[in-house]
Design goal:
This protein is an alpha+beta fold. It contains 16 helices and 5 strands.
């Protein structure tokens, strides 16, 4: 009797368990995407949808909207290990490693993960090209153009557009660059929207539209923002405004603007000092003061080398100045340096016969 009872109870228990399983089926395994924010607590859940202005995440506390400009890092639950390593390489400025990890990677099934892989592959190519590496500017441009065309809803869109503008400038396609910066200026990403003012002015300056450039730089300086990024951009804008003023026919005023930066700012801000000294060089060139111009550009060339574009610009002018000052050895060295380090910049392209 005890044996029958035990067996019966066991059977009943199994029957109840089976019925419960049908009545309450186990939920499907939820994706656990992890988003680390610049400010605020991390967000975990399933990224349901993305746009250039938002990521909508299904969390245990309900739907949450995350702004892309507040994302420090995102790890999708189902992203391939190669993509994880590629993103780490990109963050660490090891862009070749990023490309190597993504080379041959099968496109992920999930759309947002596939966009991520395409973005990092295109942007790593662009960073290598803009840094003077073994990817040409035209190859990188094609990759970023394709990403933008295929992923207009990506939360990476504004970064891609900004980079595309930089690539167009590097190739002297200033009108195309301005088109991209107009798109980022109209977008919701604060940093890229602010940078668009400065970069638009730079494209206008290089094109020779000095009046428009001066206005763009003034707009940048007067913009209502006091973030660290904005303060640095405003200083650069003032330097470039001085250069534009000098090139427009008032070298003394351009030099006054640049001198004000040099006298009031710390030389530890190497990027600003590079632009300021280049503005000084431009003002001296306008008055055909070749030795003074060479000294100004030489300060950038020797002391303030952290910004590739301003350093390349100084080298471009120095190679011409050394020839004019009958120092062919130094001219050749400057020419070699710009072609070795900055082969994909506008200045290297301009320096070639």
């Amino acid at each position: 009797m005890n044996q029958i009872t035990s067996r019966s109870l066991a059977f009943v228990a199994l029957l109840i368990a089976g019925c419960m399983a049908f009545a309450n089926p186990a939920p499907a395994t939820a994706q656990n995407d992890s988003i680390t924010l610049i400010t605020g607590r991390p967000v975990r859940g399933t990224v349901q949808s993305v746009t250039p202005e938002s990521l909508v995440v299904n969390t245990s506390d309900g739907m949450k909207t995350v702004e892309p400009w507040n994302v420090r890092r995102i790890r999708f639950d189902d992203e391939p290990n190669e993509l994880t390593r590629a993103k780490t390489g990109y963050t660490d400025d090891r862009f070749n490693v990023c490309l190597q990890e993504l080379e041959g990677l099968d496109p992920p099934d999930r759309a947002v993960v596939r966009q991520d892989a395409e973005f990092y592959k295109a942007l790593a190519s662009a960073r290598i090209a803009l840094g003077g590496g073994n990817v040409t500017a035209s190859t990188a441009t094609a990759a970023v153009e394709q990403f933008v065309q295929n992923n207009s809803n990506s939360f990476h869109l504004y970064e891609a557009l900004d980079t595309l503008g930089d690539l167009y400038i590097a190739q002297g396609q200033f009108d195309k660059a301005e088109e991209q910066f107009a798109r980022t200026a109209a977008g919701g990403w604060p940093e890229y929207a602010f940078a668009a003012k400065l970069k638009t002015g730079r494209a206008q300056l290089l094109r020779g539209d000095y009046a428009a450039a001066i206005q763009s730089f003034q707009d940048t300086e007067q913009a209502n923002s006091s973030s660290d990024f904005a303060l640095q951009a405003k200083l650069i804008a003032r330097c470039l405004r001085g250069q534009a003023v000098a090139l427009s026919g008032d070298p003394a005023e351009g030099r006054r603007i640049a001198t004000g930066i040099i006298e009031s700012e710390s030389p530890k801000n190497a990027i600003v000092f590079a632009y300021a000294n280049n503005a000084m060089g431009a003002s001296y060139l306008q008055e055909n003061l070749l030795k003074e111009a060479a000294r100004s550009y030489l300060k950038t060339e020797l002391l303030f080398t952290v910004d590739p574009d301003s350093h390349a610009e100084a080298l471009y002018h120095l190679q011409k100045l050394w020839d004019q000052l009958e120092q062919p050895g130094r001219a050749s060295a400057a020419r070699q340096k710009i072609n070795d380090r900055y082969r994909n910049t506008y200045w290297a392209t301009k320096s070639r016969p």
